[in-house]
Automatic annotation (TrEMBL):
InterPro entries named among the record's database cross-references: Aldolase_TIM, DapA-like
Active site: 143, 168
Alphabetical list of SUPFAM superfamilies matching this protein: Aldolase
Name of the protein described by the UniProt record: Dihydrodipicolinate synthase family protein
One Pfam family of this chain: DHDPS
One example GO MF annotation: 4-hydroxy-tetrahydrodipicolinate synthase activity
Translocase among keywords: no
Record's keyword terms, sorted: Lyase
Protein source organism: Streptomyces coelicoflavus
Amino acid sequence: MTATFETQRAALADVVAIPVTPFAEDGTVDPATYRALLRRLLDGGITTLTPNGNTGEFYALDPAERRLVTELTFEEAGERAAILVGVGHDVPTAVASARHARDLGASMVMVHQPVHPYVSQGGWVDYHRAIAEAVPELGVVPYIRNPQLTGARLADLADACPNVVGVKYAVPDASKFAAFARDAGLDRFVWVAGLAEPYAPSYFSAGATGFTSGLVNVAPAVSLNMIEALRSGDYPAAMKVWEQIRRFEELRAANGSANNVTVVKEALASLGLCRREVRPPSKPLPESERAEVAAIVAGWSI
C-alpha cells in the first residue's frame, strides 16, 4: 500500500460485489454457504468484495455476526480479492468495525450512510472524519444516499482526511451525480455507481468507473459483461446487458426497494445455492412471484 492508495483506487474501478449473507434453517448466519457463495464469485472473475453491505443485510446483523461475516470473507478470499468492509452505526461502533477489518488485513472500508433523522452537512463531515482519522492507513469510501449533501462538503472531508479515496454514490439522479462529482473533484476520487447495473451506463457517462452489484451474486458473467462494455465505451453493448437484467432489477426496486435483497436470495434459491430467507424488515417473496424470478434467471447464461 502506498500513500496514494493506488491499489485501493484500482479495486474500486470495477464490479464491486456485495455478497448476500445466507441464513441457516435456524436463522443464524450459515458460514459454509457463505464461503461457497464467495468461491463462486471469485471463480467467476470477481475481484472486489464488500462484506456487510446492504445486500448482505448489514442492518439486520448483530455486531458478532458482522464480525463473523468479515472474518469469513478474509479467510475465504485471501489474496484473491480486494475487500471493502462495510462499517457504520454510531461512531464508536463504526471505528471498532474498521479497526477489526484493518487487523484482519483490510485495505479499505465503506462507511454506510448515517442513520439518523437529523443529518446536517457539517455533521456528515464530522461523522466520516472521526472514522477516517481512526484508521488513516485504510482507504475510506463514503456511501452517499443523501441528495441534500453537496460536493463541497465531500471536498472538505477529503481535505482533512486524504485516505478518503472513493465514493459510492447512490442518489438516483444522473444529473445530480455529474454536478456533485465535479463540485467535489472529479479526478480526486474513484466514483462508484452505487445503484448497480441499472444506473451504471448513465453514471459512467458522467465519470463513474466502477459500480456496485447485488445481481453479481447470481450471475457474475452478466455484471462483468456490462463493465467490459462500459470500459470500452461500447454503450450499445452495455444497454443490451441493461435490457437483459431490466425486469430483475425492476422487481428489486419496486415499492421503495422493499425486495432488493429478497429477489437476489430468491434467485439464488432457484439455483439451489442459498436459502431464500431474509430478516425483518425484509420479507421473502410470496409464492406467486417466485416463478417469475426463477424464469428470469433461467434465461441468463449462468
